[in-house]
């Protein structure tokens, strides 16, 4: 049954600051997950119909962290996919998808920390953010996204501090 559902088209941002650290944000629906895997993640979101992924990544940054002050450093050469765990299929992602098919970008943050605003959306996805080492990403990810975060840590290592 799960395999009959499609993947949702999605973009993700690995946003590097000048020190080579990446922006991670804590999910607002997991406020007590300070040290738990999955509580912190990279900004990501859906691609609208006929939207260019390179445009979508800036839109998603603005929607999720309040700023699009960035420039693209690199685009991951492949689309990466993950499947939701069975207990989330039919519930997460509006119940319409088995997982996500993602295009990831490495971006250089061109703003200042004060440009990052989680309070602009009346229903924010995130309630906190911080800069973290790229190599720490896999340990921060929920189990079903860990392989993607490992891939990102390898693919974009050249931009890390």
From TrEMBL:
Its EC number is 3.6.1.-. CDD domains: NUDIX_Ap4A_hydrolase_plant_like. A motif (Nudix box) lies at residues 45-66. Its cofactor is a divalent metal cation; Mg(2+). It comes from Roseomonas fluvialis. Transmembrane segments: none annotated. Belongs to the Nudix hydrolase family. RppH subfamily. NCBIfam families: PRK00714.1-5. Residues 6-154 form the Nudix hydrolase domain. InterPro entries: NUDIX_hydrolase-like_dom_sf, NUDIX_hydrolase_CS, NUDIX_hydrolase_dom, RppH. Accelerates the degradation of transcripts by removing pyrophosphate from the 5'-end of triphosphorylated RNA, leading to a more labile monophosphorylated state that can stimulate subsequent ribonuclease cleavage. Keywords: Hydrolase. This is RNA pyrophosphohydrolase.
């Amino acid at each position: 049954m799960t395999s009959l559902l499609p993947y949702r088209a999605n973009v993700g941002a690995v946003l590097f600051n000048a020190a080579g650290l990446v922006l991670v944000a804590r999910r607002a629906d997991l406020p007590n997950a300070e040290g738990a895997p999955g509580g912190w993640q990279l900004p990501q979101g859906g691609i609208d119909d006929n939207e260019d992924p390179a445009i979508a990544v800036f839109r998603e940054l603005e929607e999720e962290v309040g700023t699009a002050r960035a420039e693209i450093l690199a685009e991951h050469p492949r689309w990466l996919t993950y499947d939701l765990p069975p207990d989330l299929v039919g519930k997460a992602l509006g119940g319409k998808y088995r997982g996500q098919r993602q295009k990831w970008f490495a971006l250089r943050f061109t703003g200042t920390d004060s440009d990052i605003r989680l309070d602009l959306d009346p229903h924010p996805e995130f309630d906190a953010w911080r800069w973290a080492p790229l190599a720490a990403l896999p340990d921060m990810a929920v189990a079903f996204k860990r392989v993607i975060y490992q891939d990102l840590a390898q693919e974009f290592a050249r931009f890390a501090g």
